[in-house]
Amino acid sequence: MSFKTVERKPLSFAERTYVPQILGGLKTTFKKMVKPNETLEYPEARPTIPPGYRGVPTLVKDPNGREKCVSCQLCEFVCPPKAIRIKPGEIPADDPTAHVEKAPQEFDIDMLRCIYCGLCQEVCPEEAIWLQNVFSLSGYTREEMVNNKAKLYELGGTLPDDHYKWDKKKAAEEAGNGGH
Amino acid sequence: MIELYLSLPIWVQASLKGLIAIGLIIPIAGACSLAERKISAWIQGRPGPNRARAWGLGYIPILGPILQRLGVFHLMADGAKFVFKEDVVPGHVNKFYYYLAPLVALVPSLCTIVVVPFGAYFDAATETLKPLILADVDVGILAVFAIGSLSVYSLILAGWASNSKYPFLGGVRASAQLISYELSMTLSVIPVFLWVNAPGPEATLSLFAVVESQSQPGFWGGMWFVFLMPLCAFVFLVSLFAETNRQPFDMPESEADLVGGFHTEYGEFKWSIFFVAEYAHMTIGSGVFVLLFLGGWNPLPWVPLEPLIAGLPVWLGGLIGASVFLGKTFFFIFLFMWVRWTLPRFRYDQVMKLGWQKLLPIAIANVIFYALAIALIERA
Amino acid sequence: MIQPAQPELVTVFIDGQEIAVPKGTNVIEAARMVGTDVPHYCYHPKLSIAGNCRMCLIELGMPMTDRATREPIMDEATGKQKINWIPRPQIGCGTTVAPGMHVKTQSPMVKECREGVMEFLLINHPLDCPICDQAGECKLQEQATGYGRGYSRFIEQKNVKPKRTRLGPRVTLDDERCVLCSRCIRFTQEVAKDDVLGFVDRGSYSTLTCYPGKELENNYSLNTVDICPVGALTSTDFRFKMRVWFLKQTNSICPESSVGVNTVVWSREGVIYRITPRRNDEVNDTWMPDSGRVLYKEVQAENRLQPTGDPASDLLATATRLLQGGAVAVVGSGRSSLEEQFLTAKLARQLHAATFVVGRTGAGDGILISADRNPNTRGALVTGLISEVPGDLAALGREIDAGKVKTVVSVGEDLSAAGLTAEQLAKVAIVYLGSHANATSAAAQVVFPTLTVFEKSGSFINQQFRLQKFASAVPGLTGATDDRVVLDQLVTAVGGESAGSDLVSVWRELAAGIPGLADLTYAKIPDTGLLLADDTWSQLTFPEGESLHHQPAAAETTA
Ligand code: SF4
Ligand code: SF4
Ligand code: SF4
Ligand code: SF4
Ligand code: FES
User: In B250, C143, C190, C533, which residue has its Cα 20 to 30 A from A12's Cα atom?
Assistant: First the structure.
């Protein structure tokens, strides 16, 4: 049997007047009233941002100052509300990172569209886009709410890198096949 | 001062009294609305309104921030907002009654305050205690009930004149509810006056007399009526909640099912008048309860005010008396709010059932009991 | 219409499924016919078979026979002939079907083979997908999804090969991504007949390169980019422009010449990024010339005719006044679609005007560019706009000089480029419909900005009298009007009857008015085109020479 019959005790007289219950309730609310309140008084007080928080998506550089995004446009593809707009471009041949070949010319994230889902961060093969701890954005116009490439790097800063994939690549290119 | 006042023409005196009534009610209502917001906030673990800061006052050191935390400037901003908001009148209303309703709500509250003594001072000339009251009339409580119950018309008018279904339902509920609870309320004060008045031509319904009779020497004489007649006090209190449309009896507003009840179609200043009236109602009701059952301006049971202030200057004694009274009243206002954030709203049928099937029989039985008891005591 | 010869059929069993396929088909194609994909890199249906990638390995079996008696050996259990499975896997591309042949494409052994091949291919493959233009249409990526290990067991240093190498003016090579399938080499040898590519070095050091001192610069070089299964060969023009998965594909026809190469136009949000060939075994196989791939740049060209800002009704009123003045000549175009030519002819009939079409010839390359550079000369014949193979406008010039023509309507043709002098142009009022500015539009009294072939829909008839349709890939320039609409408005303005300018209505008229097109609608034209009867024009001499899948009529008769 999926249900159970619950024995209900008949109410006592005092219970039927509701008075003890009401007094009990008053006691509870009074206790709540004298307790310090729970509200975090933003903006004077700021919440502590836990690790893994999904704030505003930003672009990051590696510790050597190389922009990590190679404009593969996977984030643009995966972004559910189509908030990301990328214009891919080629890195000029005289650039120290010319071996990476590709970097975004323009990179816009429309924060009026972004839903902070974090899929861009998840899909990025270069670990270049991160939802970091910025959670408060405002602007007076729609244009102001579009983060361009410069703004994204300003917000993103530098994050540690586990791989240095492109530096290794360059070293290998310079060493050639001589190792064999 | 007094002489100057008494020498003024009667209509000037009347106008002054009226101004005093307005000057009392409106700030109290404002303070109540702020208190309501603060108390609800505290009970819910919030700080409540504390952001607004007026340009001048807010920058006074120490005091400014305190006022800001208390939300005083919100109160001012709210007031200003109500005055300056666009006066929107829906096209489908009956204009005349629509405008009349808030006035009908406000006027009885302003009138009743006139007959409620809010303190007492020691008159050295007659060596007696005199009430601090705008109009010391003998009908006292009767005037309060008579005028106070007029306010139901404002709800009915508002509900009907709005010409839309939710206000209409609110109006209907209001009339039914107020009529039901008025009965119990009136019945619940009869024992008090039976006790106060010895049989004979000197009988009075004056609220001052009720307090006086709680300030007598001796065990019975100094006892507050709340101890003597707890059931009366209880019935009166419950009816008071219902009469003032406060939670858990706020059927006429009941925003969960009626949007805004009778004031759904009202906005800006007209709406605020309804609220001033509601808070005034609450204040006066609390005051009357204090006078009837809690010894008025007597600081403690069996400790009457008179000997305490006999030697003091008139203004100081009056101030003490008024403070004690207002203190008790404010506690009751607080109780109203406290209950509001504790109990959920009744269903309409529960309200009716409670009024007619529980409260009314209790009140009637109570009257009969006390009538017999008092008769027996008098006989003895 | 010509019926293809019925090929001889062979019955084979692919994964137990019986199917009759034409004799000579290989296993990959046979499997395709039952809807099974046999992964492959080096095989290409239009190139010779090299069999060097080993991705297409399958299991092969033949019905068992007794060696001595040639009697079939039966399986007792099933009552069928036993199959003699070859113990080693065979390549599907190099195996031609034989009667009764059995093939397993999904067996554990086949799967293991594919996984093995994939692992070897990926050993030295760079982790370039994020910056690789092929990503999204890369065979290696696709097969890695199906047969990849998901991680690498190879901990040694990967090979280093040249990257970002310029192979020619239009092709960039990344050797590290090359899977050594040799498709590009075979293409340059067999189709482009310009043998410049080859491998040097051995084993995993093998590297694709150009013959020293040469470049991959023939007009078909970009086909190597198309057929390269990976991102080794990339188009310099398209490089890093846009990811392929964002691009919308629209079937189109190349307007470069009367070959009528079938193409796909790749666009995103109204911007065209590239044009690639679309397979049509009767016209262009899977190829197209490089020169046709850049034509999309016309859409956003500097000299695009912009709307002047005059209300369209004013333009129309002026044009109507000019046309009603009489003495009109109409210059139609071999670049207009069939529908537009039909409406042009209708306008000319309404005005009782003489019609001309400008002939445009160049050298044919014998492959996919023909001598007639009008994509739709045959359309002008079919619609009755002209009855001769078009030449120059000398006749029109003479009439202008004689004062017989006062107004010329030009549908996208630059009259001065076609031989009229400036004085002759000055003598007449010109009504010009076109997409780009030129001397004629500058001299014209009324200019209607119209659309390019990528912005409108219609059809062309190519040198084989094959009716082929193209669809609009991108929305038209703001303010420019479809040629069909303008022509239809002009017809109405000069008192003709309009049946509507949309494709359906025009085709209703076409089907009713032109015998060769009876019962046809635009929707009925197949994607690979429809061959029309050409007997009416068999005595005309067209400028085209021989090209892929086309023998000029004269050559046929002599042969
Ligand atoms: S941020 Fe990452 S996913 Fe987005 S384009 Fe750049 S590399 Fe690709
Ligand atoms: S967080 Fe989500 S919505 Fe925002 S840019 Fe990234 S993918 Fe788009
Ligand atoms: S060729 Fe294919 S697998 Fe290799 S990097 Fe390019 S997309 Fe990736
Ligand atoms: S470049 Fe491409 S087509 Fe040429 S051999 Fe390498 S993988 Fe094959
Ligand atoms: S496709 Fe058969 S070996 Fe490459």
Answer: B250
